[in-house]
Fold:
Amino acid sequence: MTLAIFDLDNTLIAGDSDHAWGEFLVARQLVDGDEHRRRNDEFYQQYQQGGLDIDAYLRFALAPIAGKSPAELAPLHADFMASYIAPMRLSKAEALVEKHRAQGHTLMIITATNRFVTEPIARAMGINIMLASEAQLRDGRYTGASEDIPCFQGGKVLRLQRWLRENGETLQGSYFYSDSHNDLPLLREVDHPVAVDPDPQLRDAAERAGWPVISLR
Structure:
């Protein structure tokens, strides 16, 4: 197996699905608009700067779905996909995914964004293997808490290592595509790291290491 691993936000799509979900909730008047937008923007800035408290962010991001079931939220997420995610789709990104698929590579998305937000996006791209931050379900309803290791920074490496052990696979020949310096721990683990429309910190690291730098925009 050759793994082709993709970050999602600002890599396979032209935007951040987590931040966009917060904007969607504000637009649909499902949260306190001013306060939610302020905190959503603050967390996103922390992420860009590399100082995000992922546990605090997950508590914030998952609170609006607490007490609801996936079935109850499905129409809302379909609206989100159509109104926010569809305009972020990138033809060059999808062509890259299809290139790896045609080569017989195993496709995976690995993202810090929670599974509730991202799983339908991965499914729409035809990618069935995904590691994401996990939203806790109890008795068929979201609790508003997260569980498992957050899939962020070094947590992506830990989650992927566990997946490899469970599936009897290795990173031999593997690719990882990302835009963010937050993904440097995993980029350093794969055989073929690729910086995609990278932030300044990742661009600097990629140039120093001699990694390819590409654009999917």
Q: What stands out?
A: The chain has one domain: 3-212. Strands lie at 3-6, 106-114, 129-138, 141-147, 175-178, 192-196, 213-214.
